[in-house]
């Protein structure tokens, strides 16, 4: 239920803000707005303001529209023709169309700025043990290092305040094909040594968990300690309990939970046969040894080991917050970065350098809405900002039926000195609808593939 409600709230807010942008710009340009609708289909609630605009909340909350006075849609009285949308100068029509996506981008700036000002608990930028044969391992990272700063190319080092910030820098650099320099130390004030992750050597087609496994930085450092133990799992069968700290496995010291998880996974060979492991654990100050036999579980085409327990203590946290002015700058920077990242990913998908599996639809959005809402209102606002940026960027794409498509029509009109012909307008609109249906079908297919594993 929380997934459905949070999804409906998110969609309603984003659509309302988008259409409000069109509405406010139309009013500012003197164009009468006949109807402002949130949702499609049968009206559930209607009212009018003093300008005569009918506001509607409709039954299907997956869309909305602003209907203006326009001779192309209905006859207009002679004394009002100068007010019609189609009779406005080109700059006014372009401003009204662009105001919808602009409102979504401004909402994202406001949300990101508010979250930055309020403060968010995030994991400290302390690295876990790198995955085997990864870029991080080859760069000499061993786990437990504090990342104090990062930079690409000739940039000056920029402070890294949390593990989330580090992941964002990794994502940006990987998509742009740039090497990332990291400054590692023993704490936030320790400059330490500099290492370079050669991200330019990666062929990035998907931004997913496998990308970070190839880089070698998957999760923040956490102690090799057991959490909840399932009653019917291998850990319970070995007599392990919540709170047990794993000191070593088969004589190899465990630095952190990431290393322990890797040892558990590789305890099963390619035929699905599990090997017993000797664990040295600490419980209530006493050290003891137990034999644990991870149970095989098939994951795709491979076999991995599982012990039926939560592996890893909660990582150390820090509160990342900014002053009012800095928070506004953070909102602008984050909105810009997400917009550029979205365009880069779309461009890579268009030329075949990124997988079309990165395209997400309403089911994935609903799933993430529910997950973020269950974590609290700050994660939900961050999710709302991310989707608002995506909606703004998507609507500015030069595709017919989208706002960006209409702006392209106006660009043609500005260059050619005449509007696009009705014949070509109809052809482009039909093609745009067909393309959007195809993209939405692909997005829903990707959603189903993710949800069904």
UniProtKB/TrEMBL annotation:
SUPFAM superfamilies: PDZ domain-like. It is found in: Membrane. Residues 226-255 form the PDZ domain. The keyword Translocase does not apply. The chain crosses the membrane at residues 95-120. GO terms for molecular function: metal ion binding; metalloendopeptidase activity. Gene3D superfamilies: 2.30.42.10. InterPro entries: PDZ (IPR001478), PDZ_6 (IPR041489), PDZ_sf (IPR036034), Pept_M50_Zn (IPR004387), Peptidase_M50 (IPR008915). It holds the Pfam family Peptidase_M50. GO terms for biological process: proteolysis. This is Zinc metalloprotease. It comes from Tepidimonas fonticaldi.
């Amino acid at each position: 239920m929380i997934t459905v409600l949070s999804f409906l709230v998110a969609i309603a807010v984003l659509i309302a803000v988008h259409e409000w942008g069109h509405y406010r710009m139309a009013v500012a340009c003197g164009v009468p707005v006949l109807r402002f609708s949130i949702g499609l289909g049968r009206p559930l609630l209607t009212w009018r303001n003093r300008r005569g605009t009918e506001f509607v909340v409709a039954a299907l909350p997956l869309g909305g529209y602003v209907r203006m006075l326009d001779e192309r849609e209905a006859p207009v009285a002679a004394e009002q023709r100068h007010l019609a949308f189609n009779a406005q100068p080109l700059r006014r029509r372009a401003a009204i169309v662009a105001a919808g996506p602009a409102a979504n981008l401004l909402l994202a700036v406001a949300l990101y700025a508010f979250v930055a000002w309020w403060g968010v608990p995030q994991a400290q930028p302390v690295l876990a043990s790198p995955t085997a044969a990864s870029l991080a391992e080859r760069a000499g990272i061993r786990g437990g290092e504090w990342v104090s700063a990062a930079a690409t190319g000739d940039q000056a080092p920029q402070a890294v305040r949390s593990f989330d910030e580090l992941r964002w820098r990794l994502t940006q650099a990987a998509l742009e094909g740039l090497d990332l320099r990291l400054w590692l130390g023993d704490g936030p004030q320790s400059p330490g040594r500099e290492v370079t992750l050669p991200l330019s050597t990666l062929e990035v087609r998907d931004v997913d968990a496998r990308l970070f496994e190839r880089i070698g930085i998957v999760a923040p450092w956490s102690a090799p300690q057991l959490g909840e133990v399932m009653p019917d799992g291998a850990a319970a069968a070995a007599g392990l309990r919540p709170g047990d700290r794993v000191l070593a496995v088969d004589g190899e010291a465990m630095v952190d939970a990431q290393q322990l998880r890797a040892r558990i996974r590789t305890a099963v060979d390619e035929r699905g046969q599990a090997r017993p492991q000797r664990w040295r654990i600490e419980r209530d100050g006493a050290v003891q040894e137990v034999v644990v036999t991870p149970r095989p579980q098939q994951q795709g085409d491979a076999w991995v080991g599982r012990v039926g327990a939560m592996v890893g203590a909660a990582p150390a946290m820090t509160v990342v917050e900014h002053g009012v002015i800095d928070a506004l700058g953070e909102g602008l920077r984050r909105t810009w970065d997400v917009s550029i990242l979205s365009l880069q990913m779309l461009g890579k998908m268009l030329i075949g350098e990124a997988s079309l599996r990165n395209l997400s639809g309403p089911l994935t959005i609903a799933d993430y809405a529910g997950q973020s809402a269950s974590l609290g209102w700050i994660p939900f606002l961050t999710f709302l900002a991310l989707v608002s940026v995506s909606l703004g960027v998507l609507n500015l794409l030069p595709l017919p039926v989208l706002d960006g498509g209409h702006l392209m029509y106006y660009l043609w009109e500005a260059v050619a000195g005449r509007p696009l012909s009705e014949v070509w307008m109809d052809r482009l609109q039909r093609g745009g609808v067909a393309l959007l249906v195809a993209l939405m079908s692909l997005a829903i297919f990707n959603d189903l593939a993710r949800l069904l594993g």
